[in-house]
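Renewal narrative, Specific Aim 1. Our central claim is that a sequence can be written position by position from structural information alone. The example that follows is taken directly from our test logs and has not been curated for this report. It begins with the structure tokens describing the chain, in the order in which they were read.
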């Protein structure tokens, strides 16, 4: 098992698909501390179980998070920093598919929701993560 990656990972949309696969892959490459966020806590439990089955020495914080909500994102990053003291890797993966329909039949509220999760969500997460990272000393690989 390689230890290419060291430090703490913060992954959104970690309850399934690409987010879950990314967490599992990061653990295979050395990450041991995970702050995993998702709007669906039940799905996050599945990721936690999968990670723990794969690696016995991982420390995992599960966070219910709505990436489209500024306060929820801020709280999630604060929780991760309170537990692990730092965030070294940020994977802003949470997202949704849009309505598969002709433009004229899509409600503006559906479009706004899509933008809110997929665009605002990434921006809100990276802003909070960067604010946290700027407070940290550089990660030592020694
Ligand atoms: N799978 C693909 O082929 C593909 C292609 C292009 C882009 N993407 C994008 O990659 C990302 C992951 O895709 P996936 O296939 O793993 O999707 P997925 O649906 O399996 O996983 C997305 C996760 O995000 C979570 N989520 C949804 N809304 C959220 C919110 N508001 N706050 C926090 N968590 C939320 C879901 O609960 C889910 O666990 C998405 O943004 C998707 O749009 C995927």
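The sequence written for that structure reads:
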């Amino acid at each position: 098992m390689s230890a290419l990656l060291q430090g703490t990972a913060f992954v959104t949309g970690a309850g399934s698909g690409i987010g879950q696969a990314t967490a599992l892959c990061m653990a295979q490459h050395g990450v041991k501390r995970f702050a995993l966020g998702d709007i669906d806590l039940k799905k996050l439990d599945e990721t936690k179980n999968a990670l723990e089955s794969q690696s016995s020495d991982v420390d995992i914080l599960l966070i219910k998070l709505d990436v489209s909500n500024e306060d929820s994102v801020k709280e999630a990053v604060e929780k991760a920093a309170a537990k692990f003291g730092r965030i070294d890797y940020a994977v802003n993966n949470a997202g949704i598919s849009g309505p598969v329909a002709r433009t004229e039949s899509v409600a503006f509220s559906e479009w706004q929701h899509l933008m809110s999760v997929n665009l605002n969500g990434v921006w809100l997460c990276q802003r909070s993560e960067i604010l946290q990272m700027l407070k940290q000393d550089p990660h030592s690989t020694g």
